Amino acid sequence: MTQTTGGPQGGDAPLVDLGMPAPGGAFDEHNPPDPALIGDCVHCGFCLPTCPTYVLWGEEMDSPRGRIYLMKEGVDGEPMSDSMVQHWDRCLGCMACVTACPSGVQYDKLIESTRAQVERRHERTRQDKALRGLIFALFPHPRRLRLLRGPLRGLQRTGLDRALRRTGLLERISPQLAAMENLAPRLDKPVSLPERTPATGQRRAVVGMLTGCVQGAFFPGVNAATARVLQAEGCDVVVPRSQGCCGALSVHNGREEEAQRFARSIVDTFEAAGVDLVVVNAAGCGSTMKEYADLLADDPTYADRAKDFAEKVRDVSEILVELGPVAERHPLPMTVAYHDACHLAHAQGIRSEPRALLRGVPGLELREIPEAEICCGSAGIYNILNPEPAKELGDRKAANIVSTGAELLVTANPGCLMQVAAAIERSGHPMGMAHTIEVLDASIRGESPQSLGAGAPAP
């Protein structure tokens, strides 16, 4: 079966093979893609230059409007096919198209509802099921991730991880598992945070802090820096011991019921903590938690509570700008390139706040990255499920970062840090990398640029 759709300039694109339809209709009655939202797309093509997969391949069905066209086909009764699912799976969910769209198309809601339908109604291959099962048995579980720290640190200390990489054996066995190993960051000692850290000076707010799954296990220093900066800026910081995964990876990959379970637990945990606001230092987590009202809208017990909770969620850069600085900033003479994490810039609309915080550091020069709107290829678990296009996007991002000549790359998401670090290493032009909050922490504590890994500018 083939279909013709509008091409990049509004003409006809080449015929696209949708493959053999699966038996039954594409979508069931539980939250299918909303026809009204689908109808908002006027196929203008403004999204195309910002869509990572369209930029890579130039394929209409691997663009936002092409994927929306397939959703319309499904709503109109077209059965779900393997090819349909492939095009939806190839979407990174970066939401750059949401920012670019002049018609306000809510592609984020469309792709999430579509993916939930896919996970319920599409039969994946045995290999795909096994890989996804491994990922979701591990990454949304902080305790399981922490158990990996010991063996992973051992591999890194002995150099066995690099030796294994040089053999290419894992790549031949499974490119997805090889990508997972390659993305693992260099691990420092674990950091244990107290359950309550009192504010320095006059208390201005009581905030709960999400420690996260990957952030807590692989980047504990970011959480420690977050607590110190919030404390210095007059916040009591509460870190509930019982908190678990926020559900971001699950909701972004169509695992709706699993995401709802995680969300309910987070709501319960932070309600019991009695905090004014909930602070998040990982872009993907913050984006999901701000959408809990939608995720739990059909739950009569949690719908109103989820809405109240979502209104309390703040990215750490948001709350620091809202409060305004009281702690002294010491000079950090260095050049910094700031990378917009997609779920911070596009999904949450937070762009000016991190830049304002960085510009508030004396001696720091901020440089913008070319093609800033194009995703680095991390996209949650996309770089594991789709290692080849993710690598292309990572290498493209690395080249643009290196071109700034900055000493330090700064971003606000653990997935971005891992993805870009691997790409920068491949580029042969290593540079320091840090979370935004780590830069502020170093400035408030009077540390040197070297403490952040900043050295000579990239060539």
Specify the CATH class of the largest domain: Alpha Beta
Spatial strand sequence of the major β-sheet = 3-5-4-6-7
State the share of residues found in helices, binned by percent.
Answer: 40-55%
How far do the termini sit from each other?
51 Å
Q: What fraction of residues sit in β-strands?
A: 5-15%
The CATH topology of the largest domain is: Rossmann fold
Based on the structure given, which CATH architecture of the largest domain is correct?
3-Layer(aba) Sandwich
Spans of at least 5 consecutive residues whose pLDDT stays below 50 are 1-24
Extended strand count = 11
Structural class: alpha/beta
Largest sheet: 5 strands, mixed
Describe the structure.
With 459 residues, this protein is of the alpha/beta class. It folds into 4 domains: 92 residues, Fumarate Reductase Iron-sulfur Protein, Chain B, domain 2 (Orthogonal Bundle); 58 residues, no CATH class; 126 residues, 3-Layer(aba) Sandwich (Rossmann fold), CATH 3.40.50; 124 residues, 3-Layer(aba) Sandwich (Rossmann fold), CATH 3.40.50. It has 25 helices and 11 strands. Strands 3-5-4-6-7 form a 5-stranded mixed beta sheet. A 4-stranded parallel beta sheet has the order 9-8-10-11. It has a two-stranded antiparallel ribbon with strand order 1-2. Helix 23 packs across helix 24. The chain is globular. The termini are far apart. The N terminus is likely disordered.
